[in-house]
Amino acid sequence: MPYTAERPMITPTAEELRARIPGWGADLDPRDRPSYPKERFDPGASGAHWDMPERQPGGDARERSIEHRMLPPVFGTAQPLHGVSGAIRRFAYARFSEGRAAHWLLLILGDRVEAAGAHVRSLASRHPDNPITETGVLGEFRRHPIASRFGRGRVDLKHAWMDPILVAGPWVLVTVLVVKALKKSRTR
């Protein structure tokens, strides 16, 4: 019905709508809601025999935000903090709130320090990382590099020129430094 200057018809009642539209207002009456028992506060309904779960041991050395009084009852221990990156992360948790940018920037710095350490350990191993095959850069040349880049509205085109610098730059820098160090040691 188009809009007219006349007074609109009166809104139907809930009973009229329920009679006319199957399932209308199914969530109006709490007794009809499928989730209603979950919305009631009934501590005995869950079957839990505790108010607070038993605490996991070994939380003394774990990092905890300064906003929280204690660690949660269960926490991960698979990757304990270690080295310089661990010290940076511990400092971030001990000194700054999670609402501060410094907290997150220090965690990112700790991550970058850990990544640099992994690269150094890789170079010292018998099978160092191969940046050419492990970054997927060869796929850029093999799978329609021009057609997949242009005319498709890709957002990454704005920073695509930087990607080779960010991926290969550290490797080139380390290679140059090692070559210079080797030349310097030969001249001595």
Topology readout:
Blueprint: H1 14-20, H2 36-39, H3 83-95, H4 101-124, H5 131-134, H6 137-142, H7 145-149, H8 163-187
Helix pairs in contact: 3-4
Would you mind describing this structure in some detail?
The N and C termini lie far apart (96 Å). Helix 3 (83-95) packs antiparallel against helix 4 (101-124). With 188 residues, the protein is an all-alpha fold. Among the domains are: 82-129; 130-188, no CATH class. The protein is built from 8 helices and no strands. The mean pLDDT is 81.
In percent, how much strand structure appears in the residues? under 5%
- The succession of helices and strands, N to C, reads HHHHHHHH
- β-strand number: 0
Radius of gyration (CA) equals 31 Å
Pick out the low-confidence regions. none
Q: Compute the average pLDDT.
A: 81
> Biggest sheet: strands, sense, closure?
none
The helix content, as a percent range, equals: 40-55%
Number of helices: 8
Shape: flat
Distance between the termini: 96 Å
Secondary structure class reads mainly alpha
How is this structure best summarized?
The chain has 8 helices and no strands. By secondary structure, it is mainly α.
Which structural traits does this protein have?
188 residues; mainly alpha; 8 helices; flat
